[in-house]
Structure formats: structure tokens, C-alpha cells
Prior knowledge:
The structure is a single chain. The protein is an alpha/beta fold. The protein has two domains: 6-36 and 44-114 and 281-307, no CATH class; 119-260, Nucleotidyltransferase, domain 5. It is 53% helix and 13% strand. Strands 1, 2, 3, 4, 5 and 6 form a six-stranded mixed beta sheet that branches. Helix 2 (16-32) runs antiparallel to helix 3, helix 2 packs across helix 13 (281-307) and helix 6 (101-112) packs parallel to helix 13. It is globular, with a radius of gyration of 21 Å. 36% of the residues are buried. The mean pLDDT is 93.
Amino acid sequence: MKCRSESKYNLSQENEIFIFCEYLPRVTFFVCKNDSLWRGIGAPPARLYDVLMNLSIKQYFGKSLRRSIGIIKTVKIAFKLKFNTLSFKTLDNYLNNSSIKKYLNEIIRYTSNPLRFLEKNFATNKTGERTKTYSSWYSIRCNKETRKRDHINVHITTGCELHPVVAINILTEKGKDNLIFREHMKKLEKDFKVNIVSGDGTYLSRENCTAVESIGGKPRFHLKKGLTKKPKGHLAWKTMLKYAEKNPEEYEKEYHTRSNVESTNHAKKSKFGDTVHCKKDTAKEQESHITWCCYNFTVLSRAYHELEIEPTEW
Length: 314
């Protein structure tokens, strides 16, 4: 177990908001470029830069849209930031606008990219986040009243050193775990040199082993009883099982890098909570997505104060 410097850790936590307010405008500027959300019909929309700045600050402090306006104005004055403060109704409209999703993915990419020389091992997992809404399908089908809350499903791939989120998908429906895993591997290939990719039994499949090996990594999944070594066109599957058979202790050690993604989930939920307050599906997904973007800025604070890693490309 690594020994953490408590003094540096304390420093990174105490100065987290300064890193957030320094890096956020820079990242948002690079993500937005000169893009516009206007499609040539109707009144021109708000500037994309203003939208992302307002929503990010709102989500960092975790208050309602109306109460966040005062916080946004305060942060803007305190840190001398240059952007327009938008009304709470405008922000609500953009939370329900799926066109900003690709820019949120770019924020995740830009905030994890400075750690590309540090992160070699990665882990994937799915976690649930509570919502304020309730489904009625169970009550209708079983003719029984229930107050079971809905959840959204957050699929993340994280680094195993400082735990940045390098790829993320957020869905209101269940399923697609393995399709999303392979999508994350393609994203990893763009920015990172991969050594080990670990995951629980959900991701144990021949196709996933091949996807990991294709980007230069070694798959390490939770193995179930009764598995056959037949590759069926996926040699990476056979290679993984033979390695686990010959080196069971080493395999278990490499597989348990997966615990880092559990630590990431815990860290995010401890800092920003595990509840999504929006009611519509698109808004739920994007509210959670922005919160994970904010989480990545907290990782950059640790990188700066503990390892003296500072972004140089944005």
C-alpha cells in the first residue's frame, strides 16, 4: 500500500477551488473553440463558453439552479473570470439539450490528458446514482404500490494512480456494459499507453479481451468457474486464462487493480454526492456528466500539489 503525504494531500484539498477556477476557463476555451449551438433558425442561443462555465460552477457547489446564480456571480467577481452569467431558466434549457454532451466528453478528455505519462493501468466499472423520480411500471404490472427510486447508470474507466476518469458513459437505461467497455478502449488508445485493464465478471468475454489486447494492454477480469480456453477467434482470451493458470497470485494482484475504480466512485460520491436532482432523462445524464467533469478537476489539484504535474498543452 502506498504511503500518502498527508501535508501535500491537505494542501491539495485546501486549494482545490483555486485549481478549479484557474483550469476551468482554460479547458472550456479549448473545448469550445469557435463552435456555436445555433442552427440558423430562431434567436441565437447563449455562447457555448458561457453555458459550460455556468453549469460547471453550478455543479461544483451542488446547489439548485436558482441558488447557484448568486454563487456564480460571487465566483466570477472573486476570481476575475470573464463570462456572462446566464439566468437559471437558460441553464435549465441547456441541461435538457443533448447537443452539449460531446463538449462534456471533451472536458473529461482534456482534464485526464495531463496524466497520460503517469497512468498506465486502468479499471472499468458501472455505478448507480440515485434520482428524485419513481417508475410506475412495477406498480402497474404487479398491481402493487411501490416507492422505489429510479437510478441512472454511470460507466467509467479510470486510471489506477490518481484515479482520473478517462472515459465515461451515462445512461438512464440498463445494459450495454460490454459495448461501452469496448468503446472506452478506443478512447484510451488515443491518449494513453495501456498496460493492464481490469474489470469485474460483467466484462469477462472474448471480445473484451481482444479489445484490450488490440490497444497494447493485458486484460484482467474476474474469472468464473468452468471456463474453457477455446479462443473461438480471440487468442487474447486463451492467453489470459493460461497466464492465470500458471501465475494465479500474480493474476490476482493485477486483477485487484480494479479496486481503484471503486475508490474513484467513493471519492466522487463523497465530494459531490450520489444524487441527481433533475427530472428529465437528458438532464439527469448531463447533470451527472458535469459532476464527473468537476471531479476530474479535483484530481488535477492532487496532481499539481502532490506530484507537481501541471498541464502544458492548454
